[in-house]
Amino acid sequence: MIDADKVKKFWEDRAEKLGAVAFESIVNLEEDPDALAEKIRVETENVFSYLGDISGKSIVDLGAGVGQWSFRFHDRGAAHVTAVEYAASLAELGSREAEKRGVDTIKFVVSPAEKFTGERTYDFIYISGLFVYLNDDQVEELMSNLPGLLHDTSVVILRDGTGVPARHEINQKMSDHLGTEYSAVYRTKEEYLDLFSGIGLKCLRDQNMFPEGHPLNKYPETRLRLYRFEHG
């Protein structure tokens, strides 16, 4: 089990990186400019191939960080994006960025993703880099609330770290890459499929974000993966 309070502090502290690193670097944890550009390029191409046309659609972005994906959804024509982020400092950066860009269709909500219930359903639920920072009890709460955000044709896109070939946990381990202690839980593909199957959603498509041998696959125990879930 990871220390949820320390994980939250890790993310609150990331807001202080603004200026020292690019806006996009704050939450995706890639600080090398060239690697960052490649990461954004590949991920954007893959994620939107899973989303398809989002023009006029409503999206909830769970674990939104500074809204890096929310802004992309806006740029691709989403009618409204609810960006849910529990680190108030990150949500504040996102809100300021939206004001700077003149974007009024992204609403930042400060809330733990697992406790967010909202007042409506959404066409797309986007979950990005969230499960890896949740303990199992938090995941259970998230999955119990998720159906309330769905209507019959809602699509869930999950972009998250995945343990290969087994579940992999890191607890307050010093990261040379980040220069601080880091904690995360990398669940297996099978665990993700079981979780979503439990709320009536079927995985219709999934893949590694980066092909084998790509330099952004930095650790042998984990892969960033992409999943598309719909009602079975």
Percent in strands: 25-35%
CATH architectural group: 3-Layer(aba) Sandwich
Report the mean per-residue pLDDT as an integer.
93
Alpha-carbon Rg, integer: 17 Å
**Beta strand count:** 9
Question: What tags apply to this protein structure?
Answer:
232 residues; Rossmann fold; seven-stranded mixed beta sheet
Give an account of the 3D structure.
The chain has a single domain (4-231), classed as Vaccinia Virus protein VP39 (Rossmann fold). 32% of the residues lie in helices and 30% in strands. It is built from seven helices and nine strands; from the N terminus they run H-H-H-E-H-E-H-E-E-H-E-E-E-H-E-E. The strands form two sheets. The chain has a seven-stranded mixed β-sheet, with helices on both faces. The relative contact order is 0.15.
